Amino acid sequence: MFAWRKLGKVFTPQEVPGRPWLQEFAQAPCALVLGDTVRMYFSCRPKPDAAGQYVSYSAYVDLDRGDLFKVRRVADEPILSLGGLGEFDEFGTYPVSVVRDGARVLAYYAGWTRCESVPFNVAIGVAESRDGGATFEKLGNGPVLSYSPGEPFVLSGPKIRRFGDTWYLFYIAGRKWKRVDGRPEPVYKIRMATSADGIRWSRLNEDLIESRIEEDEAQASPDVSYAGGKYHMFFCYRHSAGFRSKERGYRIGYAWSRNLVDWTRDDARAGIDVAQEGWDAEMVSYPHVFELDGRRYMAYLGDQVGRYGFGLAVLDGTLE
Amino acid sequence: MAAIAFRKLGKIFDPTGHTLPNECRQFAQSPQALVFGDRVRIYFSTRAVDKTGKFLSHVAFVDMSKDLREVIRVSNDTVISLGNLGCFDEHGIFPMNVLRVGDAVYGYTCGWSRRVSVSVDTAIGLAISRDGGLTFQRIGEGPVLAASLHEPCLVGDGFVKIVGGQFHMWYIFGTGWTRYAADAAPDRTYKIGHAVSSDGIDWVKEEARPIISDRLGPAESQALPTVIEVQGRFHMFFCYRQSFDFRNNPGRGYRIGHATSDDLVDWTRDDHTPALEGTEGGWDSDMQCYPHAFECDGRLYLLYNGNEFGRHGFGAAVLE
After folding, report:
1. pTM (2 d.p.)
2. Whose CB among A154, A174, B37, B259 lies 3.0–4.6 Å from B267's, allowing a Cys bridge?
3. CA dist., res. B161 & res. A317, Å (int)
4. If you measure CA to CA, which chain A residue comes closest to B185?
5. B138 touches chain A (CB under 8 A)
């Protein structure tokens, strides 16, 4: 089992003043290591509208490289605007995953629209930054990965990686909308696509990770690292119903692979679980593993899927 | 080569005189022909009303004599069911373009799903018939052609033709939604695009290249392309209109457009040769829309809808 040592919650959105678009939630953290800071992208929300509905934005917080619990700066504005009328990302740009490409930083993000029969649909967009990840321009006003015969809706949670000459996009795709207490809830599974240029994607069209707790298990945040001659994926999973509770809510799982296609799930090795008490006592979710100055860190969300922010754990030992 | 011209045959099918499946009452929109030895099967989209009072478009067909003068039968069973909860074709299929591929009949559907901020989005699916076109089964729950980086919405109206062993699709893509008055519902604008495929499933778009020039300016909406080869030259018919105030204002409603190409790359628009004019006082006096060109027993026909987008049926003209 990996030995993740929890360091505590590192960022609390409720403590940030003067940003009406950043009132609650700091979800799906993603690190970009800069000079003397680590830029952590996250997704957040203003207060809900009169009908109780949220939009979501993405932004960043710069953490001190020498002391990740020291916040140096919070973005003044969201890094992405919401889409225009009728566009796929009109009601949310969440979550974001970034990767360097020469002088550029590319951000892959999930765009949210609202539907009549189900609450939302999601597709994946792409934007680029020419200023080191401070501001981004969308590469188009439509999605770079959208619905297909085998992935009919809810393409979300992109995680972008480059291994060798190939770009990899790990993401989730909706399998079905399941009625739970009269309300449609999406069931989604972890998928992958590959690309030579980050724009034209070829889908594997298979689930990467077998379902363990139930057939309709929902899986998210497929975060892949390479270390010790193999690929490691930390992700999160939950039950399809009653998942806003401690018993059936998100936990962090683990799988490994030598070729990025065939994965062996081994949640017993994940090495991080809910705490006895505190900010992550009900659920742990949306893991993101990054390397900094010779150590591996995991950023993750606690209770209510990051409503009160994200925290960090550090790995004692190595990924292997 | 002698100039081609239309000889109108008048309205050939009125749905209100028949019992249709799925409790559909009116509309026979976007007729699409499949020629058999002894008949022509013409698929069309007709409408039921759901419990919210909104329309659901269903595909039905009428078998007609090969001179298009006699109705042989109207389908009494479901040709293709609507999509499942949250799928792109949950709220209607309109139109469905059919073509023979080996022993199968491919049906390219334009699926409709309702949105909240705008009325609808669309995408193109593929369903295959192995029983001669009586029933169609989807290859998957999602679409084969959907919104993409530079085609942000409303991908639909696919028309597929195999030329030189390659699948070609002409279709429409939305360029955006606009609210033309403060209290008006948003209206959409779309243009005709082109994609190619080796198998009819995986498509490569030209990506937002409008292949037909605008006659009415940037706010011209172009719809339902259909392509037929005549003496070595490709002819495209389509319909076009202003993007708002087009439903009840005959001066701004749909007309039939026309373009020619020798290479399927460059198209020259010429709406006048041949021109399809409405007949004053007739069923198509105010509007002509949703054309479909096909060959039968050595003659070239154009099916199309007239007033009120085909509420009262469709007619035909012979190309001479």
Report:
1. 0.96
2. B259
3. 60
4. A85
5. yes
Measured CA to CA, the distance from residue A96 to residue A235 in angstroms comes to 15
Q: Of A91, A78, A97, A89, give the one whose Cα is nearest residue A123.
A: A89
Task: Tell me the chain B residues in contact with residue A84 when contact means C-beta distances shorter than 8 Å.
Answer: 152, 176-177
CA distances from B8 to A69, A169, B15, B283, B287 (A): 78, 54, 20, 12, 15
Nearest to A118 among B85, B125, B126 (CB): B85
Distance CA B78, CA B80 (A): 6
pLDDT of B3 higher than 80? no
Looking at residue B5, the DSSP 8-state letter turns out to be: -
Beta carbon pairs, A and B, within 8 Å: 132
Distance CA B255, CA B258 (A): 10
- The secondary structure element, H or E, covering residue A253 is strand A251-257
Overall residue count recorded for chain A in this entry: 320
Q: Alpha-carbon distance A72 to A58, whole Å?
A: 18
CB-CB contact of B196 with B166 (8 Å): yes
The Cα–Cα gap between B252 and B214 comes to 14
Calculate how close chain A gets to B201, using CA atoms only, in Å.
9
User: Burial level of A197, CB count in 10 A (0-12/13-18/19+)?
Assistant: exposed
How far off is chain A from B158, nearest CA to CA, in Å?
15
Does a cis peptide bond (omega within 30 degrees of 0) precede residue B95?
yes
Torsion of CA A206, A210, A215, A218, to 10 degrees: -80
Find the residue in B nearest to A145 (Cα).
B148
* CB contacts, 8 Å: A108 with chain B: none
Using a CB-CB distance cutoff of 8 angstroms, which residues of chain A are in contact with residue B51? Answer: none
- The answer for B 87-106 residues in CB contact with A (under 8 A) is 87-88, 90-91
Task: Kindly state the tokens that stand for A164.
Answer: 């060798």
Taking the C-alpha atoms of residue B173 and residue A192, their distance in angstroms, rounded to an integer, is 27
Q: Hey, of A82, A109, A117, which one would you mutate to test binding to chain B, going by the most B CBs within 10 A of its CB?
A: A117
